[in-house]
Amino acid sequence: MNLAIIGTGYVGLTTGTCFAEVGHNVVCVDNNAAKVESLRQGKMPIYEPDLEDLIVSNVSAGRLEFTTDLASAVKKCDIVFIAVPTPPNEDGSVDLSYIEAVSHEIADVLKPEYGYRIVVDKSTVPVSTGSKVSQVIERYAAPGVEVDVVSNPEFLREGSAVGDLMNPDRVVIGADSQRAMDMMKRVYQPFNAPIVEVDLHSAELIKHAANSFLALKISYINAVSAVCEKAGADVELVAKGIGMDKRISRHFLNAGLGYGGSCFPKDVKGFIHISEQLGAPLELLKEVERINAGQMERFLERVREKLWVLRNKKVAVWGLAFKQNTDDVRESVAIKIIKRLCEEGAIVSAYDPKARETAARDLQGYELTYCDDMYECTRDAEVLIVATEWKQFANANLMKVRELMHLPIIFDGRNIIHGENAVHAGFEYHSIGRKSLYPSRD
Ligand code: NAD
Ligand code: UGA
Q1: 161: which of 63, 135, 156, 205 fits an S-S bond (Cβ 3.0–4.6 Å)?
Q2: Given a cut of 70, is residue 95 above it in pLDDT?
């Protein structure tokens, strides 16, 4: 099938590439000319494991192309996916101006002679947005144009986007027309995934409800981690014990510094706002947000207590990205922690395998040292903070780190370092929801 994807970001680029990989002809459109040009030259605008090879092979197979020309993409493609940003407004509501702009652009170029078209919303949007998109197309498209609007929310995770897209747990398609539903099912047929066929508005709501539920799970285990710290229990054992119940499951029960990223924070806020607007306020989600913010504060307070005064203390931070396997730092808790440390006068050095450049843009105006090597980052430090769950931090040579640091203190905000190993290497080891461990004095 001929598919156009408008918006070539984390979602648009990976989705478009995976559609090409299963045999569709895909045109990825973006209004950022520099991004399109660099993709044409084979340069990746983002880091996402396995994506680059797939792009190269599908471009050379002639199934994937990049352009700024939305009009020609809409002309030649039966289905047009919208994957542009839906950032939060100041009041937590969703900024739909990108969706509106693209809908208008699509409407302006549609002509009856092109034949039937489907416009698919892949961005995360409030329930009822699809009706508004239909309205825009009806208002501005030439008379006689035949279009259906569909909702097809995306559930990929950054860092494992290719695997998530090629092997989805389910594909949600929300359509109010059988013709559109049948064509959408053909798009996904090669993926061999269960398809959830629903109406347009239910599909839109599924996405906000899913992300909010996952955020709720994380906040739940983080709230339990605070209880564990007071009680002297171990949150990892608690997560294991409750997670073995299939009704609960162990997934997304990793206690830590709280959730970050471009989606959970904005989508929880967005869902709260939507529910209030609809007169059915989801108060529960306000507590989810409160716990999430509190998790970082509790952690910082423990670091402060340990170092007493942060001013002029040398702090090494491992991790800048909002999670492992990505260069994305949007709403990264690691970045928030670094900002706070700098504001309180600490001397910060930081290391991340992929997010150094994106972080430096976000941290403009903050004075810190970016290191090329995770061990160098710890030289002379008085504390090491692990802020992102990269695997290489879990596998670090702690003896080497101990030799480099000035004081032997680790604060593991992601519970990924083996505590006993840290103690064996001579460290005091502090983590989330577990007893602190100290080297023996003999
Ligand atoms: P992104 O910022 O990485 O990419 C968006 C792209 O759209 C950018 O390249 C931008 O230049 C382009 N764009 C903006 N306006 C345009 C226009 N008028 N015409 C053409 N291109 C335009 O965003 P993202 O992370 O890919 O997220 C996109 C949507 O998908 C959001 O609604 C998000 O909530 C949702 N989503 C994101 C993820 C994720 O993991 N990032 C997962 C699922 C859903
Ligand atoms: C999340 C969802 O998992 C995707 O299904 C969804 O498509 C996407 O949001 C979206 O709508 O954009 P993503 O934000 O890429 O994906 O990454 P996650 O793996 O969900 O992690 C989000 C945050 O939660 C990270 O900061 C991570 O460190 C944190 N997290 C995750 C925890 O603290 N504990 C966990 O158990 C899991």
Answers
A1: 156
A2: yes
What is d(CA 360, CA 364) in angstroms, rounded to the nearest whole number? 6
CA distance linking residue 430 with residue 415, whole number of Å: 9
Q: Which atom of ligand 1 has the smallest separation from the CA of 84?
A: 7
State the CB neighbour count (10 A cutoff) for residue 66: 22
Closest ligand 1 atom to residue 155 Cα is 43
* Amino acid letter for position 80: V
For the entire predicted model, the pTM comes to 0.97
Ligand 2 neighbour 9 (Cβ under 6 A): no
Is the beta carbon of 129 within 6 A of some atom in ligand 1?
no
Among 198, 219, 244, which residue terminates a domain? 198
Q: Which residue has the tokens 């904005």?
A: 266
Q: Which ligand is nearest to the CA of 10?
A: 1
Instruction: Kindly state if the Cβ of 154 falls inside 6 Å of ligand 1.
Output: yes
**Region 237-246 average pLDDT:** 98
Rounded to 5 degrees, what angle do the CA atoms 74, 76, 118 make?
55
- Range of 330's domain? 295-430
Q: First CA to last CA across the chain, in angstroms?
A: 71
Helices (H) and strands (E) in the chain, counts: 17, 14
pLDDT at 440: 82
Number of compact structural domains in the chain: 3
Question: Catalytic annotation on 263?
Answer: yes
Of 51, 157, 262, best ligand 1 pocket probe by most atoms within 8 Å of the beta carbon: 262
Q: What percent of the chain has pLDDT over 70?
A: 100
Query: Over 70: is that where the pLDDT of 442 sits?
Result: no
63 and 194 co-located in one domain: yes
Angle of helix 200-231 versus helix 235-243 axis, rounded to 10 = 140
For residue 13, the CA-to-ligand 1 centroid distance in Å is 9
Name the pLDDT band for 29 (thresholds 50, 70, 90).
very high
Mutate to test the pocket of ligand 1, among 27, 30, 206, 361 (most ligand atoms within 8 A of CB): 30
**Greatest pairwise CA separation for the chain in angstroms:** 86
Q: Which of the residues 18, 28, 77, 263 is marked catalytic?
A: 263
Domain assignment present for 439: no
- Average the pLDDT over 389-413 and give the result: 98
- The average confidence (pLDDT) of the chain is 97
Mean pLDDT, range 142-161, rounded to an integer: 97
| Residue 4 beta carbon below 6 angstroms from any ligand 1 atom | no
pLDDT of residue 168: 98
Domain boundary among 176, 198, 220: 198
